Each structure stands twice: as structure tokens, then as C-alpha cells.
# Entry
Amino acid sequence: MKLTWAAVMACCLTLATIAGAQTIPNTPRAMGMGNAVIGVADDAGAWSQNPAGLGALHVATKDGNSWGHDIVVGFGEINPGNDDLAINWSGWNPTTTIGLGAGYNGLGHTETFGAGFGMSYNKTMFSWGVDVMRIKNDSHSDTALDLGAMYRFIRPGKPSTRLGLKISDIGDSTDAGPQVGLGVSWTAAENLMVAVDVADISGKSAHGPFINAGAEYRLGKTNEWSARGGLFDAGDGHKLTLGVGLVLPKVRLDLGYMNTDSSSWMVGAGFDF
# Structure
């Protein structure tokens, strides 16, 4: 265990020393946590955040089904005058430890849609995944292939600590790849999860590398409330992000806010089925 925590702290210190346009958050939860998702990737947005998360999704199965599903529908405003829509789904089979996901994200001036696949290696704590995305903006369209990996350190009685790796656009279809990203998430205190990402470590994009950080604190009698905060690296400085979530019997409600010049925000609803 001491070696595990030494590895986690060394990774965090390394990430924190790297300062840094990157991927826009694709769910309200991700926005509220500063888009620090490479080491998290545990909900409907996992397929594109880090497809390796699909191999360890742990979405509950219902009514005797072999698959558990999670879907998040988000609506918001990234740029003034643009109504932005994001729909993301991820599913997981606990018997085979295989996960699938897909989504459409019309956020800002960019549209992306695609699908992902992930699985654990021989049902161990290591998982891997791949996704393919079609990226369209005002000037051109590209198809990018991403790879992901994740390792979970098991802690008795506590959520696992996750180390994630994502290699974006491995074929360099956007002329800014491949981009390597690292992420870590861990439970720093009871009900408090902390996550740190570094995207584009190799500096392939115009302003990389980027460092994002976020936290999520669960509270309430049944941990039904979540309070979130983070810092999103916009390339010209870090933007404060805030968020809140509420788990109801049949739906999750989330709100994310980013302190950009145009005050970006996103509200969404999530469903398990």
C-alpha cells in the first residue's frame, strides 16, 4: 500500500509541475470538475473521456439484464448565441467486463460523434479501450482514433485509486496528434474524490500541455448531493469551474459552470437502465 500511494503522489507531483484549445467537457459533471476525467471515466461520458473506463464501468444491471446502461443528456451554452447539446451513453457487462459507448456532442463551434469499446484484461485491475470520433468544425472535418488504458489500485473498504492514460488522434488526422494525456483520481478523504489530468503532454497542439484539476464531494443522508469544483486549462490561463449534482430515485440532475468570458454552463439529466 505504501508503494501504491508513493506512485500516486509521484504522479500527482509530476502532473502539477506541467503548466499549459483542448477538449470541451462533454457532460455537466465533467465541466464542474474542470474536465479532469482521464482517470475518472466512470459514467456515460466514459467512451470519449477515456475508453478504458468502459472496461471498469460498474454500472448496475437491472431486472436480470446482462448489461447495465448509463445515459446523460446535457444542454447548455459554450459560446454566446449557441445552444449546445450533448448526448452520451455507455454500457457495461459485468460478466465479460466489456463496455461499449457512443455519443453526439454539439459543443461550441465543434461537433463530434462516435463510439468506443473497452474491456478489462483477463478480468484484472487493468483495462484498455479504443474509440473513434468524427470531428467537424466550421472549416474542416476529421476522423480521429483514440486509445486508452487504466489501472485501478484496490483499497479495502474504499473506492479504487485510478491511473489513466489516453492517446488521442493516434493517426494524426487533425495535424495536431498524437496527443498523450495522463490522469489520476483518488479518494483524498471520506466522500471526497480528487482528480488531476495533463492533456497533450508532448505539446502537439498550439498551446499544450494543459493541466486540469477537479474535486467532487458527496454529502447528504444517502450521499445524494454532490458539490464539485475545478480548474480548466484554456491555454491562456486556468478557468474556475463549479458544479452540483443530485441523485433522485430515477434520475440524476447535474449542473456545471465554467468562468469563461462568455460564462459557459451546462445542465443535464442522467439515467441508469
About this structure: Residues 1-20 have pLDDT under 50 and may be disordered. The two ends are 36 Å apart (CA to CA).
